[in-house]
Design a protein that fits this description.
D-Maltodextrin-Binding Protein, domain 2; single chain; 5-stranded mixed sheet; 11 strands; 47% helix; alpha/beta; 325 residues; globular
Length: 325
């Protein structure tokens, strides 16, 4: 065998060896191409701003372009399913409410995804709680006043929802308070705000991003939060539990979520990026301004909470008496 032939054979063996370990080679190179952040919201919406904030901050850490893809609709289910079915290589990351994933699955009669099996948490971002809001010009200054007025209105009372968590919170309050209020579903928080300001809707349970910003701008009045304890970002707001509704401990949380088969070392790298950004005073203030508190964790901790939360939202839907769709 000639030297030239031997060299050629060596090159072939090296190439074959590399081909036998694609996962290892890919993990070593990660990231080597554009990363896609999936947003389950319309561009420019309150929660979409959060997605774009982290895309901007993580871009220099990753050393690659981060493209935000908006896939709104079906109260987040479209974005969730897209991510669950995407290639598990770490280049598709859903920046979305982990609580929203569990709530969406609990509300669907035949969900197109199995969150516990198909998804894993790479990094947690924050903890937040939905807020009970009325229009700024509403005559109701307290939850007690609102409840009394809604009972008097009977089925002429109405409340708005535009995502799974607000639907569940609204149903729990309606059942616990003995109301006949009619739920009106909207596609976005902007639609809800417009209808509330026009006087069509009496109240709504809003995500903290939308609620806190709109309250500061004088469009909404916040009456209570749905968490079990008061929030650091809004300590003046009482909890629903304090006001006589112990059923409420609905804590929402955002996370970076990937397909379950993404390699551990890639997940660890994603976790490191988010945790590095979250540790800055700028990010802490950003999240406070958007109605939430920072939550830094390791992947295993986030995943354990995710699996527990899926069951929590299943129980919430059952207790609220909401019929699956």
């Amino acid at each position: 065998m000639s030297i030239t032939h031997t060299s050629a054979m060596s090159l072939v063996l090296v190439a074959l060896a590399a081909g036998l370990a694609p996962g290892r080679a890919q993990a070593q190179a990660y990231p080597s191409q554009d990363i896609h952040f999936i947003s389950g919201f319309s561009a420019g919406g309150g929660a979409d701003v959060m997605v774009r904030y982290f895309a901007d901050k993580i871009r220099p850490l990753a050393g690659q372009a981060i493209i935000v893809e908006n896939k709104p609709g079906a109260t987040g289910a479209i974005a969730i399913e897209y991510t669950a079915r995407s290639k598990p290589d770490g280049y598709t990351i859903l920046v979305h409410a982990g609580s929203g994933i569990g709530a969406s699955q609990a509300l669907l009669k035949n969900p197109s995804f199995d969150a516990a099996k198909q998804l894993r948490i790479a990094a947690t971002i924050n903890r937040q709680a939905f807020m009970l809001a009325v229009p700024a010009n509403s005559p109701y200054k307290t939850l007690a006043e609102l409840t009394a007025a809604m009972k008097a209105k009977g089925d002429k009372a109405s409340y708005a929802t535009n995502n799974t968590q607000s639907r569940i919170a609204g149903a729990i309050y309606k059942k616990a308070a003995g109301l006949q209020a009619v739920e009106v579903q909207y596609k976005s928080g902007q639609d809800v705000l417009r209808e509330m300001q026009s006087g069509v809707i009496d109240y709504s349970f809003q995500d903290p991003q939308t609620a806190s910003v709109q309250a500061k701008q004088g469009r909404l009045r916040l009456l209570a939060v749905c968490s079990g304890t008061r929030l650091e970002m809004a300590p003046e707001l009482p909890t629903m539990a304090e006001l006589g509704y112990p059923q409420f401990d609905l804590v929402g949380w955002f996370a970076a979520t990937v397909p379950s088969a993404v390699p551990d070392d890639v997940v660890q790298k994603i976790n490191g990026w988010f945790n590095q950004v979250l540790a800055t005073p700028e990010s802490r203030q950003f999240l406070i301004n958007f109605g939430s508190d920072v939550w830094i964790s390791k992947p295993a901790e986030g995943q354990a909470f995710f699996l527990k939360d899926i069951k929590t939202w299943e129980r919430n839907v059952a207790e609220a008496g909401i019929e699956r769709q």
